[in-house]
Amino acid sequence: MVVGSQAHMLGLLGREDATLRCIEALVPEADIHVRGDRIAVRGAQGPAQIAVDLIEEVLAVIGRGGSVGPDDVRRIFTMLTEPPAPDPRNNQSDDAVPRPAEVLTQSILSSRGRTVRPKTLGQKRYVDAIESHVITFGIGPAGTGKTYLAMAKAVQALQAKRVSRIILTRPAVEAGERLGFLPGTLNEKIDPYLRPLYDALQDMMDAESIPRLMEAGTIEVAPLAYMRGRTLNDAFIVLDEAQNTSSEQMKMFLTRLGFGAKMVVTGDITQTDLPGGTASGLLQVRDILTGLEDLTFCELTSKDVVRHRLVSQIIDAYARDEETRVATAPRAGSGRVRHER
Predict the structure, then answer these.
(1) What is the DSSP letter of 43?
(2) What is the value of pTM for the model shown?
(3) Contact 120, 103 (CB under 8 A)
């Protein structure tokens, strides 16, 4: 294999050859040799072909102006060897699976020298679903980019003048703590719940412009309770942490949808902070609304985690533990009934 340029070769090798070493670690059965502008791959046909495909995708990303590090190589390897199964709840077409290079070079938003892009096939499908549907549900574990990508699409829509305002909301539900213990006024108490949304906004927009846009009502960040009684026209609305909504709150939110509006609902059904006995509106809505036109559910998994790779392993470990608990739990009515006299 001949590499097109010295810059491409340097990008393939990575800093201190870290990228190439990652490729060798992922496909240890393949023997990779670099000499000048040429790469030779030897070994059994299966592993050697995977190594060649992996190298070609890395070079394709570099050729499109992207940069590739060890984490990106691992994601490319996953996309090549473990393509996610189609989601039966998702009414998107899964006929054409894009190349990893297409996924990693799809630009959503550029700001202050940074570009927001999907980093996994699941994330690309999620971004594409937001683009093509009025209401999109992004369901998955922590670190899969559900909220971040939704907000990037919101800022993109605002900048392209497809909507006239952005509304970001989340329920103010305590995660093991109480609002009353927090100092200050009601707004000051609620602010910590909304802080992740502010932080994401500052990553994507000029920090000096955000207060001005919020004062003008172009951007609104508010608790879910503030949505009641409103009709949200010509807006991009993101509901975050939706697993902490009740069924009534979810219905209330969804029926705020107005003309020219788009909604994205994100949440992780494994991390619910609702008080005991309260069913999650996000868990219920999948059974109620699946199949409606212009509405879709996107399921993200541990393969879509883009934080430290240990996070995906932690998520999988908890999932295995939950499966074991369910499998070993005593069935209702299986015990002997003791009758009191």
Answers:
(1) S
(2) 0.81
(3) yes
Coil, strand or helix at 248: helix
Residue 265's pLDDT is what? 97
Residue 150, amino acid: A
Tell me the average pLDDT across 229-242.
95
Q: Report the Cα 247 to chain-centroid distance in Å.
A: 23
Measured CA to CA, the distance from residue 265 to residue 136 in angstroms comes to 6
pLDDT confidence of residue 92: 47
First to last CA, the chain: 85
What is the DSSP annotation of 46-82? HHHHHHHHHHHHHHHHHHTT----HHHHHHHHHHHH-
Q: Helices 121-132 and 146-159: crossing angle, nearest 10°?
A: 40
Range 205-218 burial, b when 16+ CB lie within 10 A, else e: beeeebeebeeeeb
Average pLDDT across the chain, whole number: 84
**pLDDT at residue 219 is higher than 90:** yes
